[in-house]
Amino acid sequence: MARLRPRVVDVTDVRVLGAIEVDGAPVRSARVRRLLALLALEPGRVVPVDRLVDDVWPDGAPEHGEAALHSLVARARRVVGATALATRPPGYALELAPDALDATAAAGLQERARAAVDAHDRASLLDEALALWRGPAFAEFADEEPFRPVAVRLEELRRELEDARAQTDLDLGRPGDAVARLEVLVAAAPLRERRRELLVDALHRAGRPGDALAAVAAHRRVLADELGLDPGPAIRELEARVLAGEPAPPVVVAAKVTSAAPDAANDALAPHPGPALIGRASALAGVTGALGNGPVTLVGPGGVGKTTLARHVAASVCGSFADGVVVAELATVAAGAEVAPAVVAAVGAPGASGADARERVPAVLRGRRLLLVLDNAEHVVDAVAELVERLAATCPTVSVLATSREPLGVPGERVRPLPPLTDDAAVALFAERASAADPAFAVTDANREAVTEVCRRLDRLPLALELAAARMRVVSPAELAADLPVHRRFLRSPHRGGTSRHRTLHAVVDWSYRLLEERERTVLDRLGVFAGSFTRAAARAVTDEPDLDGVLAALVDKSLVTASVDHAGTGPTRYALLETVRAHARERLDEAGATDTVRRRHAEHVRAHLERHGQLIGPDAARRLSAIEAEWDEVRAAVAWGAEHDPALAAATVAQLSDVAEVRMTPEIFTWADDLLAGGADLGAAGAAVHAVAAGGARFAGDLDRAERHVAAGQELAGPDDPARPVLAFLAAEVALFAGRTDASARAAAESEQLGDGRASTLATCTRVLAAAYAGDPDAVAAADDLDAQVRATGDPLLVPWTTYTAGEVRADRDPPAALERIEEAVRLAGEVGEQYVLGVALVTVTSLRARAGDTAAAARSALASLEHWRGTGNRTHQWVGLRTVAELLAASGRDEQAAELLGGLLTRRSGGALFGADAARLAALRDDLAEHLGDEELERAERRGAARDDDGLVDLAREVLRAP
């Protein structure tokens, strides 16, 4: 029988941006992979036979090297075809179409992107180019000669494309997208200054000047530590612009018609650290110089400008702190118990439900080098003092600056009184504010005496001067001086008691108040119930004023209400009261006996607002979430009032926050639910939903037993049509899955799907599919893909990350490369919308997949990101799951002792859920390998050390080892 000739294929493409592939399939033979990679270094050019022999067999060519090469070429032609691998004396060449080699295609796409005029087209071209990378160029050969120079060049090409894509986000007016992209890119290449410049610019354009300055400070520290260099002129210029409060450059994007809704551009200008400082240069220098030598408290009467000065201090020293500045605004905090949660939220690491927030503050700040500004502390001074003392003992690298009307009274406190302005500075400030109100106004020889008298009678307090200066539109300085009361009690008395300090500014506010019409006074009194800013709709709900727009306009004109107008049209105008004006309004409301009535209206409005927006489902889910978060100060105030006066109303409010709690893992929501249940009051129809919220918090905190008890209690209370039933069933499914009871999890998930069609039911479907995959169901992949397609069709931006993650997770043990692609997409999508839960679990899986693929460096980076994420959110349940992956990673990189210590600590933690399925098999195999490498005795000693560590200590161990070179 004649021998069959081997089939010769016609190659479509060769891929070297990752593992070597031909037509999308891996090349099995390592030697053929190396030959193709060598030829792909110079596509179209002839590579001599002798050079190929040397490079194909770098450790020594076989005895008949040329014959062996000819044989290898024949094998390679079976993969790519004879046409593609051509014989050209004195050797061979890889002849492909320009786009048939992914490295060449990427370079071509870069050139086309540079030439593209339209930013949308440029973004598409750059995305197409970046999608060509599946890993490091030339993968297994990247660190060897002669591949190394080309691999380095292609890595630089990739980084140029990534930088250009981030710049294109800015060109399109999408600074938020650019920030999300650049934070990942900067972490991957911390010394690449162009990326730092882009990040600073993006943060500036996104209205986050503090974060922009922190990014500069972090870059300065990295350069100094690693290279002993200073930042370049471009980034220093950006820093100067942010410090000066210059607005970010406007972005004009030409409209481009697409099938999808256009992304909303964030055109907000970077906020100034505060009004211009007049007459405060010495105070600024004194406070700045005092920082770092114990807590600094800036004290003075209300309206003297403490907040303005503190913001300028923060802006001026931000670059001196590696981790920047955090400002915790305490004016909206109602009681001392709310101080620590407010600080934790300001830091951006909200912590776990059920955890003592007073302990969470030092936990999330430990090791950070930052300035913490505690603004407006006077009404919660005892709680602030306790917190500052705790930070001094546990976080020596954190500097504290507080503003208050009285000192904190803590050890080592450096009190810096802020007196009223000098005469000249007061006149200058009055003139500047008056000319802003009326451009025709100026201080002249004719009116200087009257202006000076006005400033004197107002005790030269900046807020009082601003209130009075606004009147220059309707009265002259002489008329104003004649109308003002004469009071200098503050200047005469050294006493810092609240009464005398309040009386001075109170007289100013009361004077402005008496100039109002009766209905303006009534509206202003009722607006005092708001904790923060508010919309016209909210104002209408609490004031019941027919001509609200006219009254609001009058109050804004008279500088008693401020208005923030969104000229871009992306949100409603928001109004706010100055703190002293709010305090005055509340006093008048109390005097009228109307406080309870108006506060009930406020709480009812908040509940109704949450009923309209609280169901985070559908294409506008992200908008609904933003609408809720914009009113968060009011939600907090409404729940606090309701808990004391109407627990059923507070419960109905908390019940609407179940979806928000899942997306953001906000600790306050879980705490509110726990407190309402602990109070023992009748929570009405919302009782089952409150148990559901509490169950969600217990699950995140790692207390699965408590979560199950809340689920059971809620299900007992829930009636047949209670909207909490599908949520409770979903939570039952999650808890069962964490405990390794896949059958029970699947049943509970199916129940949730049957009961509802909201967010919880869709998440229950994800849980059911995952439970099936973990149990070995071969149909789980198809089910996950169907679910992902269905949800993508709805355009729900908060659920697509979950279904994308699910579609990747079910492939983790079947097709790791495909799983990694899906999971990394989930990380990106979750980061864009702030879906904290799925972002964390996806980072855990990314770490595991990268580690299993042998990419330990990338796995370490994602592991650190995962640990920081769970550390910030306080989710112990998933934190321990992530640490299991870290233990595998450490072992894979040869750090057996640390892996054993970490494993020993994890085995004593129940809050990570039960080990089962593939996870259990991998960890059992890991322990066997460690025993073989270390010996049983050394393994047990390391495990005992890990078991002896507390929770934070175990996390710190993992972070330290991952950061080690």
Automatic annotation (TrEMBL):
Keywords: DNA-binding. Pfam families: AAA_22 (PF13401), BTAD (PF03704), HTH_77 (PF25872). It comes from the Bacteria. The keyword DNA-binding applies. InterPro entries: AAA+_ATPase, AAA_22, BTAD, HTH_77, OmpR/PhoB-type_DNA-bd, P-loop_NTPase, Sig_transdc_resp-reg_C-effctor, TPR-like_helical_dom_sf. Residues 292-441 form the AAA+ ATPase domain. Signal peptide: none annotated. SUPFAM superfamilies: C-terminal effector domain of the bipartite response regulators (SSF46894), P-loop containing nucleoside triphosphate hydrolases (SSF52540), TPR-like (SSF48452). The keyword Nucleotide-binding does not apply. Residues 101-243 form the Bacterial transcriptional activator domain. Residues 24-94 form the OmpR/PhoB-type domain. Belongs to the AfsR/DnrI/RedD regulatory family. This is BTAD domain-containing putative transcriptional regulator. It comes from Actinomycetospora straminea.
